Amino acid sequence: MNEQQLLNLLNDMAGDGLVYIEEEGYSTSEGAPAWNATRKAEKLDRIALIPILCNLLEKAKKETLKQDIYFVLGNIGVNTGDPRVVHILLKRLEAEKNKYTLDSILSQLAKQKEVSNCAPILQFIDDPRWLVRHSAFQALSKCKCSAAEEALIQVITTSQDEYDLFYAIGSLCDLGATRSVPYLLPLMKHPKGEVRRSALSALDQLGDSTFLPLFIEAMKDRSPAVKYYALLAIQNHGDETAIDSVYQRVKTMLKRMRSIESNELVPAFEFLNRYREKYNHIQELFEWIISKKWDYLFDEEKDMVKKIVT
């Protein structure tokens, strides 16, 4: 691919974004020129294009064109691991001001295997523009250094924004930042269920069985999402002390038909099955489900019960 072909690809990425499916009577992005060009850009792995893209960046005036160039650069970095891509993206953070363009750079950094220098990213974690701020949190997840961990811990201990907390917690998980565990614990009392769920998921990933009492207590949370993630944590770290809580959760959920399809009971079934041969009431629970509540299960849950009983 030469410079002109690359320009043609970038033009196609900025072209028609929708195609009308006459037989179905609706429009879709899939199969449109921009969609096809973007899929092609995602597969690029020619490092010879890197200096060409840099030259195009220097000449580009339109923000949308620059964003597409950063997208192509980022994917070449993902596909080749060439360290020049990270260096270029970090350096360009100093030159850009548009929030969407900054988001494009930071998002591409978040896709790389590792980012060697977090300093250029740290300046954006307090940015008043949430789009830039959240992308910076995600980019820090690829910075394997104490400075990135400290910055994200500072966010989860000081921010009042639930989305800041959500993205910062996710990045700490990606970093495997076990030192953040003491700072995650207070978030289990946060008024927003999504924050409690995120904190619980992080404790599941970063913690161990010593947090089992917390996971069992979370089964009483008013948020269904927190209850579900508590089940996942118990599945990973639970022992016999969690049986009663999981047993009661299954009984409660199957009191009535559920209107929203899910696989929420799968981790509960997997956990209880470990103790099925030891405890008669667990065996009886599965028999009750098969004989009385089969139609209350969704397909994945039925598959799990079939796997257990056979």
From TrEMBL:
InterPro entries assigned to the protein according to its UniProt record, in alphabetical order: ARM-like, ARM-type_fold, PBS_lyase_HEAT
UniProt cross-references to Pfam families, sorted A to Z: HEAT_2 (PF13646)
Protein name in UniProt: HEAT repeat domain-containing protein
